[in-house]
Design a protein that fits this description.
The complex is a heterodimer of chains A (about 350) and B (about 270). Chain A is mostly beta strands. Chain A has 1 helix and 30 strands. Chain A is globular and about 55 Å long. Chain B is an all-alpha fold. In chain B, strands 1-2 form a two-stranded antiparallel ribbon. The chains are: A mainly beta (about 350), B mainly alpha (about 270).
């Protein structure tokens, strides 16, 4: 009897604290990339290659857990690699063979001291990999060997973009950084007044950078010197990268609003459009409009005037936080908190073609 | 939003963030000040625990209590009835000394979740944080929080890397300095605040329970400090030191318990 109370307290504590722990899937932030045959799907502790034709698994990495947790989208390179960073305790950036899922680099890149939440950027034969430790690691694409590294700032969560001259890196520290790979230095930086977890977008001519922030604003900046060309207010924080198409900059906020901002001046000609829930992923430009996915599990498409392309959208289910991708005549979305991990939708109608359950 | 978040996590998170903002963006100091606040709020509860522990200790030395232990040693049902009678006659709640410990658990769990939520080391965590912050805080300026405190990253388990890149599989973060300090201060607090064992009652149940607690609690909290965010360990250490200070202020610290074989029996209370 006298042992019951202390043992009960210990057990109660263990049970209650264990309630704090969740599976890697429960806190995941799935990422997608495609090539002509597969969709590469990083989610929780695994990266899957899934055949676009039928949703079957081509390969899965790793076969046994190595402490990895994947929160970022894989990147498919022109030489057949799939690069994916881990947000697990391994702090590693992996190169996988797109055909087999086997590791391609002699060893994964493990010099970072924190999570990889951002996807890397590949420019020619160079990989730019931002890390949560505030460093931008620059690697040789063929081998993963570190060429140089630049301490940028606080947590780097956004995938960099390049206009050929600078590499643009966002940070949660509120700054957008333009990095000159030639000098390996920061060419300029601009404080946007709020954390920037997403990526910037670059105009086709490379002269303008578009970026949203937690300051509830979207800014267009001169890529050469960071001078602000215009800013546009949003009702909520902007998480995902803007999507450019024609004369529009499509942006969504976590209050669930979608905006079509004019490239020259940031004016939004659309009426208020707020489908059914917060939007953290980037809008996806479709050529004839834009697609967004919401936390409520809905996928919606709009034409260039803000009219709905799919009647009432498609309710996929679960919670969609990350950016959908287009693959031929399909749209792929990765919801959380539902009984499947990935769904392929018909691009024209929004109907579900197949689902991937992880098995 | 669920009730747990509404009643505990969100208020804790916002108080933590408010302190963090007020003191110039040092999250470690914010946790320490928050712990002091929690201690102040639960001060009456801890005081009640002290009194209840003393009452239970005195009861172990009471002649009537000892007599019924002997008389009904082989009849546990009757013994329980007699014990309940004495509790009722003297207005004693035998669980009163456990209540503050039980109250600590939701606070610990709430604090752990508040720390991890505030530091938002994952995208989903950042989204949850955005939804937790009350309007009076300027969220856009607060995020991201500075998670560095001394040598620690408060959002991650603490460990000092072993020299030469040496690794031990069950210590993935390195040498667990903070977990050891947590275990030591918990042991210290338990020993210092443990009443002396009864001189007349060798089967003193309270003393036996306290003795077991002095082993279990350091191990439990040390294990938590080893595996959870180091901000929680900062809370444990601060809370333990404040607990010792509170007992000392009330004149209840038993320094002799720290000496080898130094736990002196309490003087016998010869009946009512």
């Amino acid at each position: 009897m006298k042992r019951i109370i202390p043992i009960s307290i210990v057990l109660l504590g263990a049970i209650l604290l264990s309630a704090c722990a969740t599976s890697s899937r429960g806190v995941s932030w799935p990422g997608l990339a495609v090539d002509t045959t597969n969709v590469y799907f990083a989610d929780g502790a695994s990266v899957f290659a899934i055949r676009l034709s039928d949703g079957s698994v081509a390969w899965k990495y790793p076969k046994n857990s190595v402490g990895s947790v994947f929160y970022s989208s894989p990147v498919v390179t022109s030489d057949g690699q799939v690069l994916v960073g881990s947000a697990g305790i391994d702090h590693a950036l992996y190169s996988l063979d797109a055909a087999t899922g086997n590791e391609k680099w002699p060893t994964p890149f493990k010099a970072a001291t924190d999570h990889f939440i951002a996807s890397p950027l590949v420019v020619n034969d160079t990989v730019y990999a931002p890390n949560n430790d505030g460093m931008l690691y620059v690697l040789k694409l063929a081998t993963g060997q570190q060429l140089w590294a630049l301490p940028v700032s606080h947590s780097l969560w956004g995938t960099p973009v390049s206009n050929g001259k600078f590499v643009f890196v966002t940070s949660l520290d509120h700054f957008l950084y333009a990095i000159d790979p030639e000098s390996r230095k920061i060419a300029w930086k601009v404080d946007l007044g709020g954390a920037i977890p997403g990526s910037p977008a670059i105009s086709p001519d490379g002269t303008t950078v578009y970026i949203g922030s937690f300051n509830s604003k979207v800014a267009a900046l001169n890529a050469e010197d960071g001078a602000i060309r215009w800013t546009a207010d949003t009702q909520g924080w902007v998480w995902g990268a803007p999507a450019l198409e024609g004369d529009s900059v499509y942006v969504a906020d976590i209050n669930g609003n979608i905006y079509s901002l004019g490239v020259p001046n940031g004016k939004n000609p659309w009426p208020s459009i707020q489908p059914d829930g917060p939007i953290t992923g980037s809008p996806l430009a479709l050529g004839d409009g834009v697609l967004v996915a919401t936390e409520s599990g809905g996928v919606y498409t709009f034409d260039t005037n803000g009219g709905m392309l799919w009647p009432n959208g498609t309710q996929v289910g679960g919670k969609i936080y990350t950016t959908p991708v287009a693959a031929g005549d399909m749209i792929l979305v990765a919801p959380l908190n539902t009984d499947f991990l990935l769904a392929a939708l018909n691009r024209e109608t929004g109907s579900i073609i197949w689902k991937f359950t992880g098995k | 939003m669920n009730w747990w978040d509404f009643l505990l996590i969100n208020p804790f998170t916002n108080v933590l963030l408010w302190i963090y903002d007020a003191i110039g963006h040092n999250f470690g100091v914010a946790i320490i000040l928050f712990t002091i606040l929690i201690r102040a709020v639960t001060w009456p509860l801890n005081g009640q625990q002290l009194k209840s522990t003393k009452v239970m200790q005195d009861l172990q030395n009471d002649k009537e209590w000892q007599d019924i232990q002997k008389k009904y040693a082989k009849d546990r049902e009757k013994l329980a009835q007699e014990q309940m009678r004495i509790y009722q006659e003297r207005g004693i709640n035998p669980l009163a000394s456990c209540l503050p410990t039980l109250v600590q658990f939701p606070i610990i769990i709430g604090l752990y979740q508040s720390i991890t939520r505030a530091l938002a080391t994952t995208p989903l965590g950042l989204l949850q944080l955005a939804r937790s912050i009350y309007p009076f805080l300027n969220t856009a300026l607060l995020i991201p929080l500075n998670s560095k405190f001394l040598w620690m990253d408060l959002g991650r388990p603490e460990g000092i890397p072993f020299p030469g890149g040496f690794t031990i599989s069950f210590l993935p973060y390195g040498f667990p300095t903070l977990a050891l300090i947590v275990a030591f201060t918990t042991y210290l607090q338990t020993k210092l605040t443990m009443p002396a064992p009864s001189a007349t009652n060798p089967s003193d149940q309270t003393a036996a329970m306290n003795s077991m607690m002095s082993i279990y609690m350091p191990l439990l909290l040390g294990y938590f400090a080893l595996n959870f965010a180091s901000g929680l360990a900062v809370y444990f250490i601060t809370s333990n030191l404040l607990g010792i200070a509170q007992y000392a202020m009330m004149g209840r610290v038993n320094w002799r318990n720290l000496l080898p074989g130094g736990a002196q029996p309490a003087p016998s209370n010869k009946g009512k």
